[in-house]
Each structure stands twice: as C-alpha cells, then as structure tokens.
Design goal:
This protein is α/β, with parallel strands linked by helices. The chain has four helices and five strands, in the order ββαβαβααβ.
Length: 114
Amino acid sequence: MIKLNVVEEEKRVYVDVSGYISSNDTKRFVDEYKKVTKQIKGAQYKLVVTPEIFECENNNDMRTICMTFYKSGYKKMYLVDPNNYIFNTMSLGHMEKKMFSKAVKIISHKDNAR
C-alpha cells in the first residue's frame, strides 16, 4: 500500500509505504501522484517518505516510483529509515546509489525533516 498526503501548511508531501505492493498499485499511485503534484510546485515542497516493511511484486516498480520523485524537483527529499532497511534491500547499481544518496537524506524520524 502506498499513500500520498500533501500538507499545504507545512509545504510537504508525505508518502507512506507498507505491505505488499503489486504492479497495479504502483501504476495507480504514479497516476494519482502525477495528478496531485501537477497542482503544486515541487521546488517549494519537501518530500518525506516513510516506509514500513514492504514487498513489491516487481522490484522495478520501486525504481519507477523513486525516479518519479527524483524528476519532480523537490526542494529536499527525506527517507525515514532508521535501520537502513530500504537502502540495504534495494538493488541499486553504483551510479544509482550515488544519485540516491546525493538526492535523498536518510533520517530516523519524520520530525527530523527540516
């Protein structure tokens, strides 16, 4: 399950990820995400992704979602991952890891997203 929540007052976009994520779930999320974020300017917002333990039907689906976030042009992107679960389980190439770590700050709690 992937949930999207835009908080105008905070200028933040929250994305919660958990459970089993099918390819259809990914497609629906990307479509909804594009529709919602079309109305906001990404450069003025911060993205905060809060994943719980999850499993994907297709590992490329997570890459698709991550690249969609990356291309949105957020001011800052945060990944709430205190145990490095995501970074350790994603199979990224050398250049992808470098891009990911440069663009996304890994934090321990969503309140640390400043």
